[in-house]
Sequence to fold (270 residues):
Amino acid sequence: MFEEVEVEAHVYPTEDIEKVKIAMLNLVADLEFDAFDKGDYIILTGKTKSKKALQRLYELFRGQAILDTARMILEEGTFGEEIIFKVHKQVAYAGKVNFNEESPLGPITIIIRSKNPYKLIKWLAPRTKDGVPIE
Amino acid sequence: MFEEVEVEAHVYPTEDIEKVKIAMLNLVADLEFDAFDKGDYIILTGKTKSKKALQRLYELFRGQAILDTARMILEEGTFGEEIIFKVHKQVAYAGKVNFNEESPLGPITIIIRSKNPYKLIKWLAPRTKDGVPIE
Fold:
C-alpha cells in the first residue's frame, strides 16, 4: 500500500540525537538513519520500506481516538503520490501523536510515498461512526 | 556589585540536560543547579554568589563587540534590584551571547540581583565611543 516512509527532524545543539531517533522510532518502525550537519542544527532523516512501518501510527490513531483528525490531516497533506504531515517532536518522544506543529525544537515531518494515497488513508485513518471504523 | 546571579531554562524531553548546563556555564560561572520536573519539561535553575559569576559575560560583550546592545538590553531589563534578560540557548551552547529570544527550545533567562543595578551595568556594558569604553 505504500512504497516508503521517510521521517525528518532538526536536531539542535542542546538535544540528544539518540532521543530524537527514539521519538521517530516511536511512530515509524525500522527506520535507517542519516544525518546532515547544517552547522546550527543537524538534519536527521529516517527511511524505511518495511511493511510494518505504519503499524504504530495505525495503533496510535485508534488508541488515542484521533481517527477523524488524522484523516483530515493526511488528506490535506496529500500531494500526488506523497502524504506529508508534521507531528510534535516532544510528544513523539513520549510515544504519542500530536499534530500540533508548534513544538519546542521543531516538528517531526513524516512523508509516506504511495501510488494510491487515498486507499492508504482509508486503511490508516478510516471514517468512523460512533467511534467505529466504517470504511 | 551584585548579590547573586540566577539562570533558568526549560529542558525539553529530547534535550540532554547536561548540554543545557554547559550552555548556562558558558555564560555564568560557578552555578549550582536545581531541577524541577514539570512533566512536559524540566525547569533547570542555576544560582551563584561567586564574584567571578559575570566575568564571562563581561568578556563576551567586549569580544563580540555588542556593548551598546547589551547595555540597552540590561537597562530595559532592570526592575528594582533585578536585571532580567534572555539569551538564545543554542548560541549559548556554542559559547556566545545572542539576545534573540526566539530560540528553538526556549531561551536562557539570566537574573542579576544587585542593590545598584545601574552601577553594575556601567561596569558590565559601559558606553563606548569608537568602540572604546568611556564610562
